[in-house]
Amino acid sequence: xxxxxxxxxxxxxxxxxxxxxxxxxxxxxxxxxxxxxxxxxxxxxxxxxxxxxxxxxxxxxxxxxxxxxxxxxxxxxxxxxxxxxxxxxxxxxxxxxxxxxxxxxxxxxxxxxxxxxxxxxxxxxxxx
Length: 128
Known about the structure:
The structure is a single chain. The strands form two sheets. Strands 8-7-6-5-9 form a five-stranded antiparallel β-sheet, with no helix packed on it. 0% of the residues lie in helices and 58% in strands. By secondary structure, it is an all-beta fold. The protein has no helices and nine strands. The protein has one domain (3-126).
């Protein structure tokens, strides 16, 4: 399991896809109570936020022959309440051609500085 989204109407959206397919766009647009993101040794829980988002960061390798390959570098699980943002940055490692979760770093910052010091403009889903 990757993540679950709990809504104020008591319904649940569960994304059970692999790391490569965590598409947040398919989460229904209705008030969210809680987001749980499951890792092998812990579960990240964001609850009682005004807005939520999960972002997959891709890295691009460009080789000398202009062959381009994409790979996942990090996943961000983010909640915003007023001017405060709580974010979990999850490193992704590739071992034997398979994605694996690496280190998890939690940080807080003001709204508008949540993604490398810049705002996340699109994709937020509203809380209750």
